[in-house]
Amino acid sequence: MLDRQSLREMARRHRQALSPSQQQQAAMQLKARFMQHPKVQDADTLALYLAMDGELSTQPCIQWCWEMGKQVCLPVLHPVHAGHLLFLAYEPDTPMQHNRFGIPEPRLDSRLVVPLDKIALIFTPLVAFDRQGNRLGMGGGFYDRTLSQWHQHQQGPYPIGLAHDCQRVEQIPAEAWDVPLPEVLTPSHHWLWQP
User: Quick one: where's region Disordered (predicted)?
Assistant: First the structure.
C-alpha cells in the first residue's frame, strides 16, 4: 500500500493531466449529478470551493445554485485560529483576494460570515478517496477540523466530497484525525457509504 504522500502526489498528477476539454466535460457531468441530489435540492445554504490544481470545477454548480436562489458560501482561512476555516457568503460580485496558498477566497468581511450551523451541506475538495470513504486532502487538516463535530456527533453541515473519477484509489492509510466522508460525487458516479 502506498503511503499518504505518495498517494497524494499520484492523484494530483492524474487530475493535473486532464485536458481543458476533459475538465469542462467533467464539470458539466458533476453539475448533472449535483442538481439531482436530493440533499442539494432540499438545501438553502451550501458551502462549495473554487477549484485549483486540477480539482474538479464547481463553477457550473455554483452558477446553478445562484439561479435557484440558494446561498453559496466559500471557505476562508481563519484570520485568528490558524488551521481553521470560516465560510463567507459568495455572490457573483463578491470582492475576492488570494490567500497565502494562492487560493481565491472572499475578502474577509464579518457581515458575510455564515455560521456552520446555518450551512446544510459542505462540499469538500480532496486529493484522493478510497472505497471506504476515506478522504486524503492537501495535508493541512482544514476540513478535518471543520468537520470534527459532524464526525463525532453528526452535528453541523453534512459533508460530501467532490472528485474526478481518477482520484479514487484502492486504500488510503487513515489517521486518527481523518474524517471519512459519507458520500463522494464524481462525474460518473455517486459513492454513498452512509444513508
Answer: 1-22
- Quick one: average pLDDT of 118-122? 96
- Under the banding of pLDDT at 50, 70 and 90, the label for residue 151 is low
Q: Which domain holds residue 52?
A: 4-190
Report pLDDT for 1. Answer: 65
Whether 195 is in a domain gets the answer no
Grid coordinates representing 28 are: 458539466
Reading phi first (left if > 0) and then psi (alpha if -120 to 50, else beta), residue 193 is in: alpha
Tell me the C-alpha to C-alpha distance, in Å, between residue 172 and each of 30, 129, 137, 180.
23, 7, 11, 11
Chain segment 163-195, per-residue pLDDT in tens: 999 999 989 988 777 778 999 999 999 999 865
The answer as to whether 66 is a domain residue is yes
The domain spanning residue 177 has which CATH number? 3.40.50.10420
CA within 13 Å, CB half, 40: 21
Instruction: Output phi, psi for 109, to 5 deg.
Output: -150, 115
44 within a domain of the structure (yes/no): yes
Contact yes or no for 184/129 (Cβ under 8 A): yes
Domain count, the chain: 1
